[in-house]
Amino acid sequence: MTRLAIIFSLLATSALAQTEAAPDSSPIPPARPDSLTDETPAAEAEGEEEGELETMPGATPTEAEEAVPEAEPVFRAVASSYPEHAACLEELEEIGASFEEIEMVTEEDDRDCGILRPIELTEVLPGVTLEPAGTMRCETALALARWTRDHVRPSVAELPDSPEVTGLTNASSYVCRRRVGDPQEQPSEHSFGNAIDISAIELEGADPLPIQNRNGDADLLEAVQRATRAAGCLFYTTVLGPGTDPAHDDHFHFDVAERRGNYRICQ
Ligand SMILES: [Zn+2]
């Protein structure tokens, strides 16, 4: 009897725990009927590893989680509210970027990937193209525009003959993939339009300035690259680049991932 009582008691405690552990029920949009599998293939090979590790809900449901309503797709969870988005678009227009609002991006094969209110950015600032154009959230584009205006242009202006910045080479913007090298295969920030990779700064009348390992070059180009990279973290919450790991040896990775405590990863 005593044993039975203990079992009952344990069962009751467990039931209570489950109730308390149930999701905190922020409104959950209806799941797409075709999106119930989370067995998303690992990333395409191109990838890289973003530094942030704890922003995204787990991608693979445990047995316990399967019993409760499905979590919101990550791309919806990270989306800003409509008023925030509208304010962002206004600022992006004011700064002089060229862009187009495009239809919501979703992926049949991965319910977490997508962008609720994407834009296609073609010009970061007047006369500064993004080559090729990139799909991203407005916040990602606005950060790029501010970084270019306030830090890339002035830094490049210190080079001989003060060349004009005419473009940024876009190595990757929106793409649905997992972080390479992450044992949990968390989605890359590129999967939500939060990230942009810049592999070169294009200059008028001069060769482009490629992002590369310049450690120890001890010249002005190294100074420009260091200055612009450091300034990236004023606008983005993640900055990775040459020296971070082999996947980032030829570009800056910038993203606007939000983390607990608002901490930043500036490498
Ligand atoms: Zn990247």
UniProtKB/TrEMBL annotation:
What InterPro entries would the database entry show? Extensin-like_C (IPR009683)
Start and end residues of each Extensin-like C-terminal domain = 87-267
Q: Which residues form the signal peptide?
A: 1-17
The name of this protein is Extensin family protein
Does the entry feature the keyword Signal, yes or no?
A: yes
- Annotated Pfam families: Extensin-like_C
Q: Which UniProt keywords apply?
A: Signal
What is the species listed in this Swiss-Prot or TrEMBL entry?
A: Histidinibacterium aquaticum
**Region described as Disordered: spans on this chain:** 18-64
